[in-house]
Every structure is written in C-alpha cells, then in structure tokens.
Amino acid sequence: MSRALSKLLQCQEKSLLRDVNSIDLHTHVYLPRYMNMLRERQDVPFVRKLRVHADSELEEDRLVILPDEQKQIDDAALGTQVSISAGRPIGGEYWDLNEKLAYMDHHGISTSVLSLANPWLDFLPTQEQTSMATLLNDDMEAICANSQGRFYAFGVTPQSLEEAIAELHHIATLPHVRGIILGTSGFGKGLDDPAMLGFYQTVDQLGLTIFLHPHYGVGNEHYHNYGHALFLALGFTFETTVAVSQLILSGMLDQVPTLKLLLAHSGGTLPFLAGRLDSCVAHDLAISTKLQHAPSHYLKGFYYDAIAYHTPALQCLIDFVGSDRIVFGTDNPFFPPHVEEGDPTINESDWSSTIANYETLADLDVGVQNAILRENAKKLLKL
C-alpha cells in the first residue's frame, strides 16, 4: 500500500493510486436537502444560477458564502460583468455521492468520513437549526448505511446548548455518524464561551469526536482584492489558530481532558507558533495560573488532518504532536481541477490538491505513512 504510494510519486503513474486505500477524514458534501435550502435563499449563503460574464450566455450554479460577495452577485443579476471570483462554481461533485465515489476510486480512497461543508446551519434561526440538524443527520446515516462501508460521517448540531445536547444524544444512536463538525464560533460566541462546557462534556461522555473547521476568517479586511485565495490560505488558518488558542486559555479543557478534537488544515499555524504561545502565556500570570499545563500540552492532545500541501509544514506537525495524531484528508470537493463546467470527467481526473497531500507523505517512513493514511483514523473513529 505505502509501496504503491511511493511508486506512484516516483513514476507519476496515477493509476497506482487505486492501491493506496487511504481513509479521508476531511471531505465535504452538500446534501440534497441542504442544496434545496440554499437554492431557495435570497441572502448569503445561497446558490444561484448566474452568467459567468456579461457578454456570455453561459450560466453556472454558484455558491456564495462570503457576505461581501453579495453586491457582486447582485450586479451580475443586472447584467454587469462579474468577476469569476464572486461565489464559486458548484457542480455535482458537491452533492452527488456517485461523483464522490468516482473521485475516491481514482485517488485510492477506500473510505470517506463525510461532513457538511460550511456554513453548516449557523445562518438559520434556532428552531430551524434544530429540525434541520436532525433531518441532515438522518440523511447522512441513510447514505452511509447504504454505501457498503465506503462512507461514515460527522453530524451537525444546532447552536444552542439544550438543543445541541439533545442532538448529540440522537447522533450517538446513528451507527455510521462518529462525531460532529463544528465551526469556530461554537454557539455564536466562540469556543471559549462558558456555555460550551456542557456541550464538550456531552461529546466526551458519548465518545464522539469534534471535527473543528473554520468558516468566518480572520483579517478579512486585507483580502478583498484577491478573490478567495488569501481568505482561504490565511483567513481560515488564522481563524483556527485564534479560536483554538482562546479555547485553551479559557481553561475549559482541564475539565474535559479526554475530549477528542480534530483540527482542520493541520491546525492552522498552531504547530509552528506553539512555543511562542507557551512563552507569552508563561509571562502573563493572570492567564497561566488558570491553566494546569502550558498551551502546547493541550495542543499535543488534539488530532490534526494532514492537509498542509507542504512537506516541511507536515514535518513540523509530526515533530510537534507525533505521527499517531495525524490523519489523511483531502478537502474534497473544494480545490477541483480546472475543467469546463459540467465536464463529466472531473472526478476521474487528477486533483492536484489531493496529489499534493499524498506527495507530502512520500519521504516518510512506511510505518508513518500507514498510520497517517489509515490506521490513525481507524483508532480515532473506531472504523
């Protein structure tokens, strides 16, 4: 298996990917029920069919999840040329599980742990969040149960404590749903909101895993002229860095020391900045005296996906937390290959973003490769 990966990367024989048998813990889907809801909406987030350029009759579905893109989309509806950065094209690879399977087969992924992509349910009123969460979690379970072992899932919860705890207990009854995906806003006030403690305790008691994922970005005022590039590359990773640091410094983790947290995008910048965080906290007695350990102690207890796209960055993470706390991920269906809208071969083509994640593993010890590609995921989620 790892031999096939090494041979693949040496020879660039992409067909050998079928022999890798990786487990993908960071892979998203917009379920049909969720897509229908987005198509009916008028305010961000929404999906709308738009002309790519004012001088073209070509239309495509575009997903708009960033508030500052609303004006660009509204201008497009009036016939004014719109930047292709306004929203993102969204095709069947985002909601059709047959397309997901074709992508998996092409890239050697035996099992995917599906999660709803951002912005989840954050934009809905609480009552609607509660009912929609249950429906989506049941949809996930039905999909996974009929996948012959190809799919497992992370569920979703509403953003209020009582309703969220009730949904966690429901999720715990679904055999293929092994945890939840959670945004960095928590219940809307951050991961360090004291109201989150009961939520964390319930997750821990039920043996579930939290997959922590960014959505809102940090430093967004600096990114407006550069499409989605800086928002995704910097805003997402900084968001994770800030939110997790706040959670650690709140002291709540001392009350749930066995809570299982999986951080997206290799933990943002946390592995690189852990020493600086330790030093700054140590020199602030008002904070350090509230904690039982240095911040790096808590960071070393988390799990991380291997989506770094850069071998030195992944090696930094391995050196910091050890290879037994890192799992493979792809971020599919985001960062697809550049093909024409509606091209049916998109999921049978090489996704450079996925190949890059494999390439970061190429020079690692075979045992480390096996751990990251599949064994750690099996242990974490009891697959």
TrEMBL record:
<dbReference type="Pfam" id="PF04909">
    <property type="entry name" value="Amidohydro_2"/>
</dbReference>
<keyword id="KW-0456">Lyase</keyword>
<protein>
    <recommendedName>
        <fullName>Amidohydrolase-related domain-containing protein</fullName>
    </recommendedName>
</protein>
<keyword id="KW-0210">Decarboxylase</keyword>
<dbReference type="GO" id="GO:0016787">
    <property type="term" value="F:hydrolase activity"/>
</dbReference>
<dbReference type="GO" id="GO:0016831">
    <property type="term" value="F:carboxy-lyase activity"/>
</dbReference>
<dbReference type="GO" id="GO:0019748">
    <property type="term" value="P:secondary metabolic process"/>
</dbReference>
<dbReference type="InterPro" id="IPR006680">
    <property type="entry name" value="Amidohydro-rel"/>
</dbReference>
<comment type="similarity">
    <text>Belongs to the metallo-dependent hydrolases superfamily.</text>
</comment>
<dbReference type="GO" id="GO:0005737">
    <property type="term" value="C:cytoplasm"/>
</dbReference>
<feature type="domain" description="Amidohydrolase-related">
    <location>
        <begin position="122"/>
        <end position="383"/>
    </location>
</feature>
<dbReference type="InterPro" id="IPR032465">
    <property type="entry name" value="ACMSD"/>
</dbReference>
<dbReference type="InterPro" id="IPR032466">
    <property type="entry name" value="Metal_Hydrolase"/>
</dbReference>
